[in-house]
Specification:
The chain has 331 residues and is mostly helical.
């Protein structure tokens, strides 16, 4: 395990360096000028040029990238062009909202995959429900998010479709940044209920493709496992189909769905940009979209590194889970 963790850390550093280099290279194709964005649209050319020198934008790309890596080694992500604040402070402000949404969507997606599998194996005639779920999961993320907002917020007004909290709790700031948990911690469960209602629609939009992809992978793996000899032996001992599925089927079929979950987490990080924009969710996705619009390269680089770290951590946990589910997999 120790050797595996060391290799994972070294691999993570290499991946983050490559990712930072690729994202840093995007500055050459971004048409906007950060110096102009800071100085203002009506600033004279002399002021813009002075700002470019102050930011070091006239230096060679190698020098700029080396300066970026040196700051990164000291946990300094630079200054945001748009907010005029340290990127690290901005990320610390917006990260809890994105983590809350991402973790909720992953949990909901895994639950949906379990429901799909249970319907397929335990309830006859459930093909129609399964096809409907697959149809929803195959819809482009921007369209499914807009449809959810239109029907459940605009038309039926069942759930709120913008922000993390209602107007009555807009200034609430909890100890952890996770509003669903913070409402309970401070003894105000009504805040947790309101936060959960705001969380449902964006989390569902992100969870649908996860649930469909993982569910189909789990369904295929279970079909293979349930035909094995040891499963027939378990049935011959008189175990119910539910017990056979839970005790002998799921663990032995977990490897492929866990791999699919890792791939879906990668897509989730991109989908966050769309869903947070549609639902006005004040997280890193919305922050990144606004940074792109302002040619805020330090902010984009900072968010890319945070997303990269999150993806690496999730995939490491998934590999550990695969080794626990299947003893033949050696870390």
């Amino acid at each position: 395990m120790l050797v595996y963790l060391v290799k994972s850390i070294v691999g993570a550093v290499v991946v983050l360096l490559l990712m930072s280099f690729i994202v840093f290279g995007l500055q050459s194709v971004i048409p906007a000028d950060p110096a102009r964005a800071i100085a203002g649209p009506s600033a004279p050319p002399e002021t813009v040029e002075a700002m470019r020198k102050q930011l070091g934008l006239d230096d060679p790309a190698v020098v700029q990238y080396g300066r970026f890596l040196l700051r990164l080694a000291h946990a300094d992500l630079g200054m945001s062009v748009r907010t005029r604040q340290p990127v690290f402070d901005d990320i610390r402000q917006y990260l809890p909202a994105t983590l809350e949404l991402a973790l909720a969507s992953i949990a909901l997606g895994v639950a949906l995959s379990g429901v799909m599998t249970a319907l397929q194996f335990l309830i006859p005639g459930s093909a129609g429900i399964r096809l409907a779920l697959i149809g929803m999961g195959s819809t482009p993320i921007f369209l499914s998010a807009l449809l959810l907002a239109y029907f459940f917020w605009f038309r039926m007004d069942w759930l709120p479709g913008a922000g993390r909290l209602g107007p009555a709790y807009r200034d609430f700031a909890g100890p952890t940044g996770f509003n669903v948990i913070d409402g309970i911690l401070v003894g105000q469960p009504e805040i947790s209920v309101d936060a959960l209602r705001h969380l449902i629609l964006p989390a569902l939009a992100l969870a649908l493709p996860i649930g469909i992809a993982v569910g189909r992978s789990l369904n295929g793996a279970l079909h293979n496992v349930m035909g094995q000899a040891y499963v027939r032996t378990a049935r011959g001992k008189g175990l119910s189909e539910t017990k056979v599925l839970l005790r002998h089927g799921l663990r032995n079929a977990a490897t492929a769905p866990l791999s699919m979950l890792g791939l879906q987490v990668r897509l989730l990080l991109g989908n966050l940009l769309v869903v947070e924009r549609v639902f006005g969710w004040p997280g890193l996705g919305l922050y990144t979209v606004q940074a792109f619009a302002s040619a805020d390269l330090p902010a984009v680089l900072g968010v890319a590194i945070v997303f990269g770290i999150f993806y690496i951590l999730v995939n490491t946990l998934i590999e550990i889970g695969q080794s626990m589910a299947d003893s033949r997999i050696n870390l």
